[in-house]
Amino acid sequence: MSATQYAALVSIAATAVAISSRSPVTLWPAALQRVLDDNFGVVSACKIHASITTLIVAALGFLGLSIKGKFKVMKPKAPPTPLKGTAAESIVLYDFPSLPGVASVSHSVSKIHAFLAFAKLPYTTKSTSPDTGPKGKLPYIQHGQNTVPDSVFIMAYLRNTYGKGQSSGILAPMDAGKRARVDSCMALVEQTLPYAVGYYRVIDPQGFRTLPSLMNKLGVPRLLCGLIAATMRSQVSKLLYLVGLGRHCRQDFDWLLQRDLTALSALLGSQVYLFGDEPTDADAVLFANLDVILHDGHMSPALVDQVKQHDNLVRYTAHIRKTFFADKLKEQAALRRG
Amino acid sequence: MTATNYAAAAAFAAVAVAIGSKSASVWPAALQGFLEKSVGTASAPQVQASITTLLVAAVGYLGLSLKRMFTISKPKIPDFVTPLQGNPEDAIELVDYAGRAGMAGSISPYVSKIHAFLVFAKLPYTTKRVSSPEAGPKDKLPFIHHGPNVVPDTAFIMAYLRNTYGKGKKDLILGPVTDEQRAKIEAYIALIETSLPFGMAYYRLLHPQGAARLPKFFGEMGVPGPMQGIVGALVKAKMSKIFIAGGMGRHSQQDLDWLVQKDLRCMSTLLGNQPYLLGKEPSEADATLFGLLDVLLYDGLLGEPMVDMVKKHDNLVKYTARIRKTFFADKLKEHL
Predict the structure, then answer these.
(1) What is the pLDDT of residues B88-110, one digit of tens each?
(2) Which residue in A55, A249, A263 is closest to B187 by CB distance?
(3) Nearest-CB residue to A243 (from B17, B244, B246)
(4) Minimum-distance CB partner of B21 among A47, A137, A252
(5) Would you call B52 an interface residue with chain A, using a CB distance cutoff of 8 Å?
């Protein structure tokens, strides 16, 4: 609730009290007053008066606020996202606190870790919360004066900034045909898999059981973990319902998930990456989701098993971890041992 | 608010009044003394009762808000599993919103998808018009009635129809597809539905030009004159909140335009010079693309900038016009 809303509530409360302190004499019709006096005695009657009047005034005020709210149009606060910067600047990637064993606890941020690794671009990572970002989400990057949120925009920004003159590699400009194929593949990954991560981490009973432990590993104090996990469950369920996927029973949800995993597995086939020998944006996105599912250590076995039905997806994830994240994972393991 | 909510609110109000009337016994003597000095002994009992009532009501409201922080949203019918196959002898009834003149399918690109699918597949069907998606088992349109089966969600509807009517068929729309074709179809559908429907919703409801047309649209839906502006404003406000909550609404208009243009460019590239996305015959991907393009180009409700973005792609415009003429000629007689 904003400051103005608090102010409005306080003034309604004050008005209610003021009006009801006048209620016996000025507002109530004599007949009603008499009914109260006869039933409760004069002393109690005037307090009951005041009480009822207060509630009515407060309710009216509240109704007014609520009607006003129904007409309020919410607008995005984010400015247009910059699409290009100066190559000389350094890249800072904003992430959640790190979770050992995975590139990031968030499949969204992992995409950018993967993209930057594929692109061999140096960067530093800072830990923060989503509300510090221009769109209230992570990831976002800081690059010189530019703040760039949203993974699709970040990848476009990096390609526009660093891709000039590149003839191969992930940063090289893509022709329209390749762009279209890569984008359709990314859309396929994004339409169900990220929501499956949310569902199986937070809503599914087995996933939910390990959620407090996951929160604790991210730095949430032990005492609050259970509470935060419960509120998170509520929020995720509401979001899933809003976007549509939460309206399916689990069986239907799994049907949609398998449809997409099967299609992705078919697109990958026996290749090293989705589009041949070099990784693309689509690989950053697919890897990020698979990495979190297979390696976050807290995922419901129901989701892990569904992914493991596709051998090539498991092999693919292992290959990318080994090729691009070996050092980071070794470092995390050493920290845990030490 | 439901009946139980009203009952709870009423019970709570009663408790608040009861406690308020006993406020003298609840307040510490020091506070009571302070109150009497501030407002006088005559008014003090009323003011005391007032404040106490408000506090009790506030605590109750807080409790309710706290409860909401922990409630879990669940499917409307928890054990409803969507059927995936039926009896080909049964009749198909497609449930849709009210139609709009000049449109091949529906004002909804998702219902349009199924109109297109059925027409590509040459499956006879009837249409039932409803005003609210709550008619469906998943609170969404479209859904179909087919014999004893109710099938919601376009992905399930198309799979159901293919499973039911596909036997012996050789075409892409009902017949078997290779793994590679299936992957392409799913990827194309995913791309078409990532940002473009949100662009449509934004330019219909939130962009000034689209929003200006809303009252007239609600008039067509049967909303009486004086209410049209109010209903339009309410829908606009509600959509803005859904937009923001769902994620797409966090984008500035420029970012949304960037996403829309990128996806239109991709679909135009994927179609190229072909008659359909996968070559010579229509597939589920074409049902999806056509369903959306028919809405974008012909619903007459979108803000101009969105329509212009689509019209930049000649092949998409021609594709839509051609499919309207080939498959929807009867329905669109005066508009072709």
Answers:
(1) 999 999 999 887 888 998 999 99
(2) A263
(3) B246
(4) A47
(5) yes
Could you read off the pLDDT of B210-251 as tens digits, one per residue? 888 888 888 887 788 888 888 888 988 988 888 888 888 889
Reading the block at residue A216, the tokens are: 């604790």
Query: Cβ distance B288 to B108 under 8 Å?
Result: no
Query: All domains of chain A, ordered by start, with CATH?
Result: 3-71 (no CATH), 91-162 (3.40.30.10), 176-337 (1.20.1050.10)
B26 reaches A (C-beta below 8 A): no
Cβ–Cβ contact A123 with B under 8 A: no
Beta-carbon count within 10 A of B322 CB: 12
* Lookup result for tokens 């209230």: A136
Q: Which residues neighbour B134 within 8 Å (Cβ) at sequence distance 6 or greater?
A: none
3-state secondary structure of B276: strand
**If you average pLDDT over every residue of chain A, what do you get?**
91
- Check which CATH number belongs to the domain holding B318 and give it: 1.20.1050.10
The reply to whether B211 and B98 lie within a common domain is no
CB contact (8 A) between residue A21 and residue B47: yes
The C-alpha of B332 sits at a distance from chain A's nearest C-alpha, in angstroms, of 32
State residue B33's pLDDT score. 83
Provide φ and ψ at B150, rounded to 5°.
Answer: -115, 125
